[in-house]
Design goal:
The protein has 387 residues and is α+β, with helices and mostly antiparallel strands. It contains 12 helices and 19 strands.
Length: 387
Amino acid sequence: MILRRLKQEEHSLTRKLWEEVFPEDTKAFLDYYYFIKTKENRIYVIEEDGGIRSMLQLNPYRIRIEAEEFPSEYIIAVSTQKEYRSRGYMGKLLRTSLEEMYNDKIPFTFLMPAAAEIYTPYDFRYIYSQRSGVIDLTGKNGDDSDTASGAADSPEVSERDAAIFDAEEMAQFFNRDFADRWQVAAVRDEAYYRTMILEQQSEHGGVRLLFSGDNLIGMFAYAAEDGMEIREPLILPGWEKCFEQSAAGLAGDRYEKIKVYGYPDAGKGAEKPLIMARIVHLPALLSALSVPSEESLDCSFAVLDPILHQNSRIWRLRSLPGEETVSVSETEDSEGVIPVAELVEFLFGRRTADEIRENEDVIITDRLKGELGKIRKLDRVFLNEVV
């Protein structure tokens, strides 16, 4: 058995395994993926009996945490050829890639699990629940169309599919009108939207742009491979009806229902856990946290990380009145013990201090609980990335 990171020119060698393990993915999508995404990603493989039998790919993203940007990696295509499963290959690939990500000081890595129980033993936990719903074109549910508002019939409203040259305007639209809603999200720059456009085109779709006059008022990604699906509709308030009419126009007479994923608005659609994350470089993540400027913070706790032992230290967090940033250092005096999996759930607002204290491995004194309560939890997360 040989575990190694492939050279960039070797990345195409993994396509055969992808096609075997994920037969639902189309040739058009894989042509896009192996031409665009594998130019900049990292691929780790295990070779056995003269061939690639298992792989894990890391796709790079810039992630904004509060006001700062950090590198991150999206884990995808974790797979093993059927005849070589149950040999611990996935664990070996995960541990190797996590160590390399730690060396790059990546605060956290994330993935969309096929099943959560595969990744929980490696201390991945959910940090993002996606809001999804259905637009019923038969008119039987009527909820969205009856309540939506906006100048849908206004003659100045137009729409078209985005082209590569639109990416800059799309990035400006997101960052001007939507970015402040979330504490954690992928950085939406021009390159991000260029890639999104190509990705959606590979799935018999595109990114639809809605305009009022010359002003962009909304956009959404769509695909029409197996039914009609829409991802991440970003529509300015007051123009929701235009989104529904645009979606219905794209569907035509071919579909009765349209699945919508990634509604940004609270109360829209049903929530389902979607993205899991694991802390990688703990000091980098802790340093990205913030506290209200009127508060002072001073606490310490030990972290237990069974995979990335470098994180298993006693960490002191401090912030003075008038500051919002958190300084992180090592210390010898601990007020508690928090395993890394419970820490990610706490910091991302998925569980409270009292809830994680129910775990027998967690020790949090009342004073520590009070200090940790001053930290702004990263509970406004928006991660709809697919590959």
